[in-house]
Design goal:
about 250 residues, alpha+beta, Protein Transport Mog1p, Chain A, 7-stranded antiparallel sheet, 9 helices, 7 strands
């Protein structure tokens, strides 16, 4: 069976949103991450770093007139194909080295994008990708006591509708070094195979999320495949998500 360290090394080459997940070793490592909270948090950070790297590569400007220059020099390139091929291969090698170096730098440090938009994307991805609950219980008081004990969330308030939802447990996620409480619920709809929850509430300190909204009334938006609602109360930022439409998410308030 693959160890956590072996899974981490395997997932270093994993690119989210590609066919990498179909590779047997990567699939095994991803399955282990769903069961290992520490590895799961590391994978979230790795995927976020991959997105940052992709975004930076996309921002590299294409020189003006490059297409026309390539066409005009095609004959010259054909005549000197051996020399040009060597130069092109050298340039490509340098490019690969630079990209590899930049990726290594990113892997050595946490992503610096601590904005509200990135926070919403990260939390939604956590709920959709799969996670392991740190504490499982259908008792709301026990869940609250556990989160207080772990210093993950204190004095949080649930909307009236959400207080009636069936709780399943909670997890503690990391955001820029701060703890985020993830409360898991069931809506009552059929769950997919292996699923334990289909309604998630993330509670974080508002100060840890740059640009967090100050409105106390819920603001609705779609993030990835989730319909979400965000609001603040005191020093807490709330992020509620579920698969469905706005009408469905409003029913929990």
């Amino acid at each position: 069976m693959m160890t956590r360290e072996e899974a981490r090394k395997t997932l270093l080459i994993y690119r989210p949103g590609t066919t990498d997940a179909a590779e047997p070793e990567i699939a095994e490592a991803l399955a282990l991450a769903k069961q290992d909270p520490e590895l799961s948090r590391w994978l979230d950070q790795h995927c976020a770093q991959q997105e940052i790297l992709r975004a930076k590569i996309r921002q590299i400007p294409v020189p003006a007139g490059l297409k026309e220059q390539i066409i005009s020099e095609r004959r010259i390139f054909t005549q000197r194909r051996f020399v040009r091929r060597g130069v092109a291969l050298a340039a490509a090698s340098v490019g690969v080295i630079l990209i590899g170096w930049w990726a290594a730098v990113l892997w050595q440090r946490p992503p610096s994008d601590d904005t509200f938009a990135n926070y919403c994307h990260r939390m939604a991805s956590t709920a959709l990708r799969g996670y392991s609950m740190d504490f499982q219980s259908s008792n709301a008081k026990e869940i609250r006591a556990y989160l207080v004990q772990q210093k993950a969330a204190e004095n949080y308030e649930l909307p009236a509708g959400l207080q009636k939802a069936a709780a399943t447990g909670c997890a503690i996620e990391n955001w820029q070094g701060a703890k985020v409480a993830m409360l898991c619920f069931r809506t009552g709809r059929p769950l997919p195979p292996g699923g334990k929850s289909d309604l998630w509430l993330f509670v974080a300190d508002r100060a840890s999320v740059k640009g967090a909204p100050t409105a106390t009334a819920p603001q609705f938006a779609r993030v990835n495949k989730l319909m979400t609602a965000t609001w603040t109360e005191g020093n807490k930022l709330y992020f509620l998500g579920a698969i469905g439409d706005e009408r469905m998410i409003r029913a929990w308030f």
